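Folds abound. Consider this:
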Amino acid sequence: MTGVAAAGLLTGCSGERSDGGTRASVTGAREKAARAEAALRLRTSAASQALVTQYDAVLAMHPTLRTRLAPLRDQAAQHATALAPASTASPAPSAPAAVSAVASDADEALKSLAAAEQRTSDAQLAALATAPPELARLLASVAASNAGHAFLLGGGA
């Protein structure tokens, strides 16, 4: 009698294990999570790329700021690359980013860049709520860097 009961349990267990629905739902959940992460990476990478575009506009208008701005611009470009989805391995291709009008006064242009850096930092921090752990760590680092740039550009240094 014990053997029949054990055989019934084994059959029940093996039937559950071979259920394709469970595997399909796990696979579906993984695919959904991967798509969500790719979309988040695309958005955050595009935000960093927009920042690069803003730097380029300021540098075109105020080439004398190149020494001060080039390292910050280069870091923004590195952020765009690091945040890009793995499938693209480069910054997100996007429509031309909306660039704020560049002030003719260099100090005003720097304040505008500082505000853009802070907005980007805030967006990266907001994205932490839905990011998987590895991406969340990267976003936190990028957000801190952007906040530091905002501080430097705002005259705090």
In short: The chain has five helices and no strands. The first helix runs from residue 2 to 17. Residues 6-17, 92-96 have pLDDT under 50 and may be disordered. Residues 115 and 150 are 7 Å apart (CA to CA).
